[in-house]
Amino acid sequence: MSLQLFMKKNKKVKENVFYAPTKSLLDENGLPLNWEFRHVSTKEDEDIRESCTMDVQITGKPGAYRKKIDTNVYIAKLVAASCVVPNLNNAELQDSYGVKKPEDLLKELVDDPGEYQDLFVFIQKYNGFDTSMEEEVEEAKN
């Protein structure tokens, strides 16, 4: 196999996708607004995970800690990082909802828990998290 095949110029770029995450924001025709989402890189995902990870002391073991990720914060930051339109960093949009962080604005815009969960599942699949660990283990066994 040629090394040339691995060169960056040959790497497929994932196109942005459109998805309407909530039925509470409608266009002039009464249809849910499509938002634009981009692919999050492995490096970006690592940075997001790291920002959501904390050291938690192990009970009964003074001075011993383990890493714990705050999954709710991780979910919000991953979805916010994926969102292109609307711009969740826009101060005017944040002010209209009385928030100052993209993750908080996201939760204001998609305030239905079911829609928020569906949006996260959509973003996970789009970013390559489309099989569970159990599915991967079962596939490896076969």
UniProtKB/TrEMBL annotation:
Q: Which Pfam families match?
A: Phage_TAC_5
What superkingdom heads the lineage? Bacteria
Q: What protein name does the entry list?
A: XkdN-like protein
In its UniProt entry, the species of origin is given as Lachnoclostridium phytofermentans
